[in-house]
């Protein structure tokens, strides 16, 4: 019986050692699982933070792009308005220029007529002066009473 008791004690001891190994292994695995879960939680938090940063950056970029698009639309509108104003000014300038050209042509025509009249008057005046001199030279009275 002693052998049985001895075998029982040895088996009990081996079982205790195996249980200790098992518990140690179980603790090690539990620590690994806990460590892995902590790492996973940290990674999830890191990813959540990165996601928030990315969303914030996207929102900022979208706002900047919207502002830029609005500015482009505003500038295109101004360009169109200025272009229309320029075309109107060009049309008005062309109209004025045509009016001035017509007025200048009329004035040149009037000047030519006046010059012709003036030359005719000069010639007539010269002829009259010459006739008066000829008549005075012959003692012909110029005024009749």
In a few lines, what is going on in this structure?
The protein is an all-alpha fold and 145 residues long. It contains one helix and no strands. The mean pLDDT is 88.
Structural features, described:
With 145 residues, this protein is mostly helical. Helix content is 94%, strand content 0%. The protein has one helix and no strands. The chain has one helix spanning 2-137. The radius of gyration is 60 Å and the shape is rod-shaped. The mean pLDDT is 88.
Radius of gyration: 60 Å
Helix count equals 1
Portion in helices: over 70%
What do the pLDDT scores average to?
A: 88
Question: How much strand content do the residues show?
Answer: under 5%
Structural class: mainly alpha
CA-CA gap between termini: 196 Å
Low-confidence parts lasting 5 or more residues at pLDDT below 50?
none
Let me know the largest β-sheet: none
Taken from the alpha-carbon principal axes, the silhouette is rod-shaped
Q: How many strands appear in the DSSP assignment?
A: 0
Could you give the order of the helices and strands?
H
